Each structure stands twice: as structure tokens, then as C-alpha cells.
Amino acid sequence: MRRRSLLGAAVGLAAPALAQPAYPNRPIRMIVPLPPGGATDIWARLVAEPMAALLGQPVVIENRAGAGGMIGAEAAKNAPPDGYTILFHIASFVQTPVVLRRWPYRPEDFAPIGKFGTTPLPFCVRADIPATTLKEFVAYARGKQLPYGTYAPGSSGHAFAQALSDLEGLDMVPVHYRGEAPMLQDVLGGRIACAFHSMTASGEQIRAGRIRPLATLGRAGIPSLPAVPTFVSLGYPEYFGNAGFIGLWAPVRTPAEIQAVLVEAFRQTMAKPEVLRRMAETDTIAQYLGPAEFKADIEAYLRFWQGLVDRLGLTAEG
Fold first, then answer.
1. What does the alpha-carbon distance between residue 107 and residue 182 come to, in Å, rounded to a whole number?
2. How far is Cα 276 from Cα 172, in angstroms, rounded to an integer?
3. Residue 92: CB partners within 8 Å, gap ≥ 6?
4. pLDDT in tens, the chain (318 residues)
5. What is 122-241's CATH number?
6. Which superkingdom does the taxonomy of this entry point to (predicted)?
7. Distance from the CA of 204 to the CA of which of 15, 25, 120, 247 falls in 20 to 30 A?
């Protein structure tokens, strides 16, 4: 669709208004607050290409990693609210500030553009660890102070690995990374025993047998690996069935008419068969929501996460 027709569809402008300079008229920066090569980066690039075609301008990925995603999110908050900086993020958007007890931004500093979806997060061990089930792993890990990797402090991978350690009386030690890609390299290199991974970034290594999935978060399981049980099915607490979110935001003061253009471009992107096919290939579950529904989803997840962190007494150290 041409940019001019997208603008008219999204904003409902009358024909005379279309003669004015249209948004966008220069490239858009999409901040991804985690490093290249991880799942968030892969998803952002999947979205950026079709959005660029719809908007008629490049959508340029800028990886701004650090502080569990907070550096990139803060940069997006402080960017001019003109529609030329947007944020693509995962549930660490609210998770990390809650765990670190530090908010360089608040959720209300952003206008939700739309929810992308969610993904199962399997708990995996190195291939050389002698455990093919979670029960076997617990027996193996007891008393060893095994290091576990997290793709960001305060993330799902951090909280649920610590919950597993606490529930089973283990003494596992968190090692925090600036994203999944460097964490995966240390797992494969033998420096980290186990971690929660995404199928998007680590699925190839999982299917090749280089890391072994023992159980997964969420309730639906992993579509391409139905034999991997969920934690809930193994009798772990119900909160192991919760899934995070992936989505797109703009600074909250971005003009409503520009937000509407972005919302429409993202909505159309999420309806494209090629996007949905590529998501399915990486076990990413499409769950498109518009701005109002996504805002409610974030608020509900934030309440859940605050309760879980309080229950676990979770800090960046463990």
C-alpha cells in the first residue's frame, strides 16, 4: 500500500489534507534494547521490513543494549515525540525495573502501538549434562552451585530459573548477559550449565541437540516440540504457566495522528501471511492486540510480575 493511502486510512483525513507533507518523510528509528542476534532483534527485523514497505520509508534497527533493556527504553522515552523513534521490546520492558527497583521510565511514558505476540521459553541444559528430564536435572544439580544464564537481569529467564532453584532447594547462581545471543554462546562453550532460551534465537541449537530442553514456561507448550512438558504439567506452581509479551511502542507525546499511522502499519504487518509463517517457524505465537487492548495486557502483566517478584524476593543478584 502506498504511504499516502495508509495515512488516509489510518487517520481518516479528508482529501485536501492529503496534499500536506505526509508522515513519514524520512527514515524511522526502531530501538531494540537488546543486542543483535537474539530473539528480540530477530522479531524486530521481521516487523521492520513490511512496516517500511507500508510507510514508504526505511525502518532502521538500532540496538541499544544494557541494564536489562532499560538503556534502550530510556533512550526511546527521551527521543523527540515526532514518530521517528519507536521502541520494540519484550516483557523486560516492565520486568527489569521491578526487579532492580529502579524506573528510568514508566509504562505510561509510552503509547502502545500493538502487541506482536509471545513465545514459549524452554529451560535447557548443555548436551553434556546427564539429564534428559527435569527430575534428573534437579537430582544432578543438587549441591553443585551450577551457574545459570539469564539474557537480562530481571527477565523471565532470571525469575523462573531462580524460582526453580528455590523450589527444588538448589543453589544455582545467576550469570547475567546483555541478551540471549552472548548467553547462548557461553552455554555452548561450556561456561554456563543451563538457562531459559527462546526458540526464535536458540531453536536451531535445540533441534541439533547441542542444548537439551527439559520443560517450558506457558501452558500451550512448544508447537514444534510437543514432547517437551510444561512446568505446570509437571506440578510446578501456576505462575510457571504465565507468558510475557512482545510489542511496539512510541513516546507517549507522539501526536495522535502519527500514532494512528504507526498503529495501522503495524496492524497490517501483523496480518501478512509471510510474517505469520515466519513467526510459526520459530515457535513464536502471534497474539496481535491493538493499542487499548495491549495497554490493558501490559497493566495486568505488571501486576502479576510485581506479585511474583515480591513472592520470590527477587533481586539482580538472585
1. 28
2. 37
3. 33, 34, 68, 69, 152, 154, 155, 156
4. 444 445 444 444 333 333 346 999 999 999 999 999 999 999 999 999 999 999 999 999 999 999 989 999 999 999 999 999 999 999 999 999 999 999 999 999 999 999 999 999 999 999 999 999 999 999 999 999 999 999 988 899 999 999 999 999 999 999 999 889 999 999 999 999 999 999 999 999 999 999 999 999 999 899 999 999 999 999 999 999 998 999 999 999 999 999 999 999 999 999 999 999 999 999 999 999 999 999 999 999 999 999 999 998 988 776
5. 3.40.190.10
6. Bacteria
7. 247
Please state which architecture CATH assigns to domain 3-118+243-312: 3-Layer(aba) Sandwich (3.40)
Residues of the chain with CATH 3.40.190.150: 3-118+243-312
Best CA proximity match to 149, nearest among 173, 119, 120, 113: 173
Cell numbers of 180, please? 540471549
- This prediction has a pTM of 0.88
Kindly state the DSSP code that residue 101 receives in the 8-state scheme: T
Secondary structure (H, E, C), 217-273: CCCCCECCECCCCECHHHCCCHHHHCCCCEEEEEECCCCHHHHHHHHHHHHHHHCCH
> Around Cβ 247, how many Cβ atoms within 10 Å?
28
CB 249 within 8 A of CB 111: yes
Q: Angle between the 3-11 and 39-55 helix axes, to the nearest 10 degrees?
A: 100
| Cross-strand bridge partners of residue 62 | 31
What residue ranges of the chain are covered by domains with CATH 3.40.190.10?
Answer: 122-241
